[in-house]
Amino acid sequence: MEALLAGTKGRLRELSAKHVESRVVQAMLRYADEYQRAEIATELIGATADLAKLPYARHVALALIRYCGNSHGKAIYEAVAPQAIKLASHSNGAKVLDFLLTQLDAHASTKKFAQKLRNRLQFNDFLQDKERSAIARERLLSKMADKALVHFGFCHDLLRAHTESCLESGYAFRLRTLASHFTEAALHCVASRNGAIGLCDLTLCADAKTRKKYAKALKSRVQICADHKHAYLVLWRLLDVTDDTVSMTKSLLPGCLAAALSPTSSPLRASRMLAFFLNPLIKLDQNEHRALNHRPETLDLGDSLYASKKASSTRYQEITQALAQLLSSSIKVRPAHILASRAAKPLLCAAAASSQLDNEATQAIAAAATSAYFLVNKKVEEEDEEDSNLAENELFPEDEEDSDFDEAAFEAKLDSKPDLPDEDEEEEELVEELAPEPDPNAAPRGQAILEHDIGHATLKAILQHEAKAQNSAPIARAFYDRVQGSIADWVQTNRGALVIEALLRYESNHDFVAKLSTELSAITLNTEKNPGALALAKKFKEGTTVASTSKSKKKRLISAATAHQSKNSIASRDGVAQDTAALFSSDSSSKKKNKKKKKEY
């Protein structure tokens, strides 16, 4: 090493630009000790920006940043910062710039230099005028998109900073032109949080033609994107603002629904996304709120330009109708598999609360809840948990670095399909492991769903959300018709008692609630070591108290009306008439009013 340093002293910049010699310089940086690296860095750091632009020398620049970035971070930043904007749009320099930001962020002592470099890329240091800054950022982003350099992390950060600044400063019309440059780069942007949020803002300001191009770019990977922790936000935004709901429901909605109902999908992102259209009042997390907080109705894009011509309620209604049809069709085919899916729970609860499922799907859910399927397949979904994020990790590697930072390697990973099993093998495994779907017309098979950790929780949540919505209760009615007469068997276990307790949460005007109360009054509940039975007994007692209270109140009102009728006070008669009008039919009320008028006359 000492001989190499002596022989190459003063010539390292020249040697770094050659093919074979650049590999020698990289090896010197790798195997040198601390003092020898300091000697090499002293000669090369000043030319880091120039080395980053050359084909072979960029590998030397990468090695210099890797092995000297912590100790010489400030010197490398000062050498690169003046040419950072030019490097950002350079095919070789962008790789070096992205790696430099990553290395500076990795150490606490150099993190401040990474932030300074980002501020320089976002034109925050030397352009105080917001309009000039927006024009400069737009020009840089357009150039990077045209040169296929948008897959770098600093480009995603720049995109989000630009879209947020334009939306806050009233320059949203500039995003419409920029959106057309990112149609072929949509899959690259959704790999990170900042890129996905920036693409959501571009989708909001884009025209109808550009939105269709975004949907076309994501169509081949829609099911994988629906499960990804950032990419699903862009799908959500496309369904949210696109006026052509027919095109969206054909290209994006089936894949999103498949991801939401898959038993191997551990995240709930796709299910929450679709549940939003059935129930727009669901609680959003921080990233979801940021991606959806700007509404197309309030966006100013200039003269005669609109983000969306349809009202949001109209778009949601059209998507909800298409989603309800697809969901009902899926439930009819595989109701038990869907009840056993952890990811499908939010969507099923929203569908139950909104009463969007048809009668056949409702009966299928009730049949699956009382079938023997769950007893046979208690642990099917647990065996597939390891494969839940297989496609996500293959398509969007986040912390993995290429050995030579080559763009071709990144594109090869993007174009490669996940190594999933063949369809024939998968079907054979399902035939062997899964029991057949239950027949909706078959007789109930007991409480097998209570043995399934996910199935019983999903059933209980569906009944609770439907009771809270105070609708016609089609699922609860169909379920009770199948368990009627066997309530005593259900309340013996903790899980079964909680399911029956959910039935008591419905309004008392439903006929099945009265039948259930009559059946429970003849059952002795064992509340010892059974929290579910204790909760059921408490709920049953509350319902009985409310019913008795309403009956006694009705009797008091009738007696009060009778007492006041014997008096001649006009004010008293008017007050009693208002109370009795709610208790008797309209005919009897009108007759009494006529009698009172005759007496007054």
Automatic annotation (TrEMBL):
<dbReference type="InterPro" id="IPR040059">
    <property type="entry name" value="PUM3"/>
</dbReference>
<feature type="region of interest" description="Disordered">
    <location>
        <begin position="381"/>
        <end position="444"/>
    </location>
</feature>
<feature type="compositionally biased region" description="Basic and acidic residues">
    <location>
        <begin position="410"/>
        <end position="420"/>
    </location>
</feature>
<feature type="region of interest" description="Disordered">
    <location>
        <begin position="556"/>
        <end position="575"/>
    </location>
</feature>
<dbReference type="GO" id="GO:0006417">
    <property type="term" value="P:regulation of translation"/>
</dbReference>
<dbReference type="InterPro" id="IPR011989">
    <property type="entry name" value="ARM-like"/>
</dbReference>
<protein>
    <recommendedName>
        <fullName>PUM-HD domain-containing protein</fullName>
    </recommendedName>
</protein>
<feature type="compositionally biased region" description="Polar residues">
    <location>
        <begin position="562"/>
        <end position="571"/>
    </location>
</feature>
<dbReference type="GO" id="GO:0003729">
    <property type="term" value="F:mRNA binding"/>
</dbReference>
<feature type="compositionally biased region" description="Acidic residues">
    <location>
        <begin position="421"/>
        <end position="436"/>
    </location>
</feature>
<dbReference type="InterPro" id="IPR016024">
    <property type="entry name" value="ARM-type_fold"/>
</dbReference>
<feature type="compositionally biased region" description="Acidic residues">
    <location>
        <begin position="382"/>
        <end position="409"/>
    </location>
</feature>
<dbReference type="GO" id="GO:0005730">
    <property type="term" value="C:nucleolus"/>
</dbReference>
